[in-house]
Amino acid sequence: MTKSGNQEPKAREPKAKWKQETVDKLKVVMAAPVDSCIYKVPNKLRKVKEDAYNPRVVSIGPFHRKNPDLVDAVRECKWRCMLSLLQQTEDENKSHQCFEDCSDAIYDLDDNVRQCYAETIKYDKNELATIMLLDGCFILELFIRYHEAKKEKQGDGDEAKNVIEGDGSDPILKSKWMIAALQHDLALLENQIPFSVLVTLYNIVKPEATISVASLALDFFEPMNEKHIPDELGMDFKHLLDLLHKFYFPKPVPSEPSEISIPVDNSKLNDERSRCCFSLSRKVIKKSDESQTSSGHSSQPDDAAGNDKWGFDYCARELLESGVQLHIPSEKDENLLNIKFSNGGLSIPTLIINKSTSSIFRNLIAYEQYSLSSTNTVTSYAFLMKSLVRYPEDFKLLQERKIIKPHLIGEQEYLNQFKTILDEVVAKDDFCFASVRDQVNQYCESWCHLNKLQVYLKVRFLKEIRDLHNTYFTSTWSIISFLAAFALLILTSLQTYYAIHGPHK
């Protein structure tokens, strides 16, 4: 009995140890962040275009801090920027007090900062506080200097990039290339710090400022449309990428129902007319494709809609040839998501495209893919716009209609940038433009409207004129040959007429 009694506690030891290990693990899980907002990009998305998710010159936050490929000069510049930001006056006591207040405030944010990251942060409290203080001061000083330079040049952002004032030993802030690289890096999903860190530091350093951190940040990034940036914005942002998401892609406005009722199967007559005219339309499109092939342009689309459920069934050129008018809103519309279809016209607000637009879109989409609480607005917008632009001619058409406003980027570069933007992206159920898509697709399949027939005939007439020009008037000699042949035809006709109807003896 004694022997067995001694063995029973020993037998319990492994079980007790296992239970305790399980409890300890559960405690770690309970303490883990549940409202994280800064994620690492999934490998499937990263493999599509890795450069779009990796910083080029500067690391922000803990994820890329030890990246050896980043520019060493920027690491040194961070410390200079922090010194410049904290030394607001020549009074050493005030500067030291500013440093004390900022460091204390950041140090106390440790728990909140860690909850913002989806990955476990391996740095201790002191190291993480250093990262937040250093990166936060660097970002604020960069935003403030950029804003002041733009004000001196009366809002001319391109010239401001060349006159950003700073210490002569900080060439980064005077380099146009470096500013563009910083704009790219600060909009990356993995290269973020909590927005609350920036607000906390800014309120200490600039307690009487009349412009908010959010406004300074939006002023620094390249604009995506002509939306006005107010001096004061709310502070309900998780980080800089979330700020871009909420400012340019707010919650979608419910689509207004189309003013036109589109009957589809009212009668056999309408069915026959629809099939006949639609077949004619497709022949015109096919013929257009063949003419583009002969002129050296690719007749193959860059990509289909990307998903059977999302996007239009027709690209921009096909929509126009099917009787849909493409235009920007009659009144200035600052919401990119206000895409509407009414009375045969598709209204799309202007989108400004530059060399960093593709990277920003990819990171916004990755943010939506990871964040269940985020709306699906950017992903929906990307699907819709990608379905419109499948040929270089689509890009030119939208550019003529001022729907796309390219800045230092051509149609082929646009197609290359956005060709894979939706690869490995999971299409959720909440497509923001389902109503508009259905209205446009149904309108294109029905030929029962006088307005549509007029547009179709006008487009076809203009197309025939273009084909005639491309065939007979592409050079001076072809024009002379055509005129000579036409004159010969007239003279021959006159000779034949007078030979038949001339005076008879």
TrEMBL record:
Organism: Pyrus ussuriensis x Pyrus communis
Protein name per the record: Uncharacterized protein
Pfam families assigned: DUF247
Keywords: Membrane, Transmembrane, Transmembrane helix
Transmembrane segments: 477-500
Source domain of life: Eukaryota
Lineage: Eukaryota, Viridiplantae, Streptophyta, Embryophyta, Tracheophyta
